[in-house]
Amino acid sequence: MVISVVSRGISHCNNGLYLPPSFLHLVRCMALWSMKKDPELEAALSRNRRWVVNNQIKNIILGYPSQEAPVKFLQRKFKTLDLQGKALNWLKKYPCCFEVHLRGDEYYCHLSKRMMYLVDEEESVKSMQEPVFVERLAKLLMMSTNQRLNVMKINELKRNFGFPDDYMLRIVAKHGDIFRVVNHSGRKSSMELELISWDPDLAVSAIEASAHRHGSEPCFSCSLPSSWVKSWERFHEFNSTPYISPYVDPQGLTEGSKEMEKRTVGLVHEILSLTLWKKASILKLGHFRREFSLPEKLNILLLKHPGIFYVSNKYQLYTVLLREGYNGSELVEKDPLVIVKEKFGELMQEGLHEYNRRHYLANLEKKRRIGIGLDRLEKRKEKSGEVSEQDQGEGLGSLFDPEERRRFYKVLFDDNTP
């Protein structure tokens, strides 16, 4: 499709090529979505992918009565998890995480004992992390234009920040001196969360906190190879202007100005710094365009700063990662909740390894049996051939012996033979 569009956009003029403005615009748009792939960051996304899916399956099972879900029910949920194939086959790949059994004519699935142990550990960490969640939620509200955020939009990113599913009860309801629920229309979709207590100690970004620790001026860091000369030049030019905190009211800034761009880059940087995995979906970030005064084409802004952000289209889902948050494919700093979740990932890999090992041994046994069958067949054929030759030789008086055959013909045609 792209090739046909490109071919239609090019025409010859005076033995040269003429590229119309519309075509150039298309090429520029396509180029803006391209970024040189970072294998280590791509590997980090790949590693997280299976964990995310299995974590969602875990939550579905835990939310089902008696914490045991019919596999047919999970199969219907596969579409929302962006999965294909049979749910039963997927669950059997992770025997350390999920246990499947047949009851009557229907398969059921529950979490393994080791998995349930990790679920309890995760809940314990969430309880200990409650003050941290309060601060994260307050900081998000402090960055919004009117200190309000739509609850349904927060729900889209709640797991990015580690918020428990019942954060409205566990965090918001328990801290009525900080948060308030506002709903003027009465519709569930219009419910908003409002900050009613501004804490100046929280209005400090990760960049400002780092600068304070090092006794320097707040500025962005660039995580690019030295060979990216032009990108480094653009970064230094961008970084030469004063840093603007995302907690500063943006109403005094002009849309499209360098100051507004600086503030927006700082805001996305701060949001990603608050997430567990230092990453987020660009599409979901775009849902907060009005609340955070984000540009309409957020993707273009992020791609303009490859030293700060890394944009990936892994699994056809545009994701932005904070480069400085990673050392290779590993997080520089791991939240206590991340450490627990990584244990889940290790358990998942252990189960997958066990599944693959079982299949390998089963295939090896199958090939061995096929090999034994073929050997037996060959031996039967050879034995059959030997018997038939022996029978023929005996019936024709050893004429299949070469020496006997020569003597026979010599006697038959040579008159001088005795």
From TrEMBL:
<dbReference type="Pfam" id="PF11955">
    <property type="entry name" value="PORR"/>
</dbReference>
<dbReference type="InterPro" id="IPR045040">
    <property type="entry name" value="PORR_fam"/>
</dbReference>
<protein>
    <recommendedName>
        <fullName>PORR domain-containing protein</fullName>
    </recommendedName>
</protein>
<feature type="region of interest" description="Disordered">
    <location>
        <begin position="379"/>
        <end position="401"/>
    </location>
</feature>
<feature type="domain" description="PORR">
    <location>
        <begin position="36"/>
        <end position="352"/>
    </location>
</feature>
<dbReference type="InterPro" id="IPR021099">
    <property type="entry name" value="PORR_domain"/>
</dbReference>
